[in-house]
Write a structure and sequence with these properties.
- By secondary structure, this protein is α/β, with parallel strands linked by helices.
- 23% of the residues lie in helices and 22% in strands.
- The protein has 13 helices and 22 strands.
- The strands form six sheets. The protein has a seven-stranded parallel β-sheet, with helices on both faces. It has a five-stranded mixed β-sheet with strand order 16-22-21-18-19, with no helix packed on it.
- A hairpin with a 4-residue loop joins strand 2 and strand 3.
- The longest helix is centred in the C-terminal third of the chain and has 14 residues.
- The radius of gyration is 23 Å and the shape is globular.
- Pfam families: Peptidase_S8.
Amino acid sequence: MNIRNGYLLLFWTWSTVAAYSQTKYWIFLKDKNTTDAPAISPKTLQNRLQQGLTLFDETDLPVKKKYLQQLQAADCQTLNISRWFNAVSARLTAEQLQAVQSLPFVSKVQPINGQFYIAKTQPNRRSAMAPVMTQVQADEFKKAGLNGKGITIGVIDAGFLEAPTNNLLKHIFDRKAILDKRDYVNPPLTYSDKFYTTAETFSDFHGTEVMSAISGANRSESAQNGLATESQFYLARTDHGTREFRGEEDNWVAAMEWMDSLGVRLINTSLGYAQGFTDPNENYQINQMDGKTSIISQAAQMAADKKGILVIVSAGNEGDDPSWRIISTPADAQGVLAIGATNQRYWNRIGYSSIGPEFLPYLKPNVSCFSLYGTSLSAPVITGFAACLMQANPTLTNKQLINLIEKSAHLYPYGNNFVGYGVPLASRALALLQNPAESGTTYAREIKASGTSHTLKLPGTSDMVSVFHKKNSMHVLTQEVVRLRDGQLTIQRQEGETHTTIDLKSEVIEIVWE
């Protein structure tokens, strides 16, 4: 996990250091028993039937017990078991690695690369969500009686310390809306109350903050901090916070498979892989953020395509890092909804928010919204947004939900790799629910221009507007805030600019330069 925000490791032992001195590997196995029953619940099958998906395939079959027993006999203690990839993870010495590679049922062995990172800033225990609630028009959902009731949300994160005593989450625990929890970092604590009380790093509060942004509410003050105040949850802790060792992607995959087996259709994960290892050779490279290279992107895409799960992921907080700048994985997977962060006032990209790589043939991030404390807290807002839409129409598939959320965003259809299609708006989403055939372009217009500048009359518009200068229809050269003079806006065309997006919040204008 790549922590660049001064998170402090509180507890560490030499035994832990010794355990992590071994290298962690994926061990991929050759086959499965096709006569085994799929390791999924009736609820999972019901969800897939409703979405018109294949009910189950080989990825749902359990890993062969015989293979697990033979690995154990070879002194290989498995950490996590993946039925999706027919693989297990384990820490191996050089000698153990050689022995495992020689087993006839092992197809390949590869090191687990990458590192998780979360928000750059110190944990925020104050309520900072009121501005974004206004931005996404939370009152529109409230007036429609939508609050995520009946929707189950999975949260995969770095820790849920003190969640039961958090004022914004008290209502969740009072109605026993946490259905189950698992700790993949400290497996003996999986079913223990220590899940909420073990303090190892400051990042152990991160999942608590994420939950607050999804469903937080202070009943005594009648204050709403999240959109899905009536949802129920499965929680998984998959990341330790400040260990600079091999990544914990196997924990993430295990949590995804666990939630899929229970029939969870909506998962928020405000974690991501990028770089930051002590050994630079273990870092991901920029060209590997392609939606296909990392195991967790493959898992996220499988969840989207085969399991019908809407995976909502923070885009990343590397926008200000000149050596990286782009989104992390699994936000790079085409099938996930990757969420960036905007400025509160102008709704353009806030500096830290990661940018979509230009080599992707699809748009990333998908949408964005305001967050002062990282994309880790913008993704949960959109998770709550999605829960309200699922409540309004439970038959919507994950792909239909992504399409609906993108169409409801304020820049649609003129998205870019800085903020995606912009900020989703509840009023537009509800209108689209009422009229699914709507194109989503009601608030958009396109004009042609030539030369080096163009002037538009925009009476009644705010005196300052956001402008995206683009090298093509999708990729931003620069963004700026431009002042209107006497109700007129003059756009100066930049070198290499072919498209310009003018963001009026209530309307979007696209200039196509000829």
